[in-house]
Specification:
single chain; mainly alpha; 144 residues; 71% helix; Nuclease HARBI1
């Protein structure tokens, strides 16, 4: 019985070690990869915007993003790129987390998407999205 318990304990320690190594690898990838070094074609395919427009979006959103204080904090720019990639591709959060350009865990992807979506809804939507409110405007839009 003691041998079984020891084996389970060793397996659990190995699993924890592997998770820690994966976290370090993701962080290394994240710190040394720059999505803006991608070709224009792949950048637009990943984020749905060209690089110049993406920089404008980052500049609009980043003042509202909280900067992390923990060891594993990610940049404001990366949080926005993660959300843009999710919006552009409809990919699952796990797939985005496994993307070696972004290099984040599913939990970080989820938090980034939520934070950016909330900011866009609260700060950008009122300035950039307007629904028609008169019959004239509705008809003009239908005809267009």
């Amino acid at each position: 019985m003691e041998a079984v318990i020891n084996r389970l304990f060793v397996e659990q320690l190995q699993e924890m070690e592997e998770l820690n190594e994966l976290k370090l690898e993701r962080r290394r990838i994240r710190d040394y990869q720059n999505p803006f070094h991608m070709s224009n074609y792949f950048f637009k395919k990943s984020f749905r915007f060209n690089k110049n427009m993406t920089v404008e979006i980052i500049n609009m959103i980043s003042p509202f993003i909280k900067q992390g204080v923990y060891n594993n904090k990610i940049s404001r720019e990366l949080k926005i790129l993660v959300a843009l990639s999710f919006f552009a591709t409809g990919s699952t959060q796990t797939n985005l987390g496994n993307n070696f350009v972004l290099g984040l865990s599913q939990a970080m992807v989820s938090c980034s998407i939520k934070e950016v979506t909330d900011i866009m809804t609260e700060h950008l939507a009122p300035r950039h999205i307007r629904f028609p409110n008169t019959a004239n405007e509705i008809n003009r839009i239908k005809e267009g």
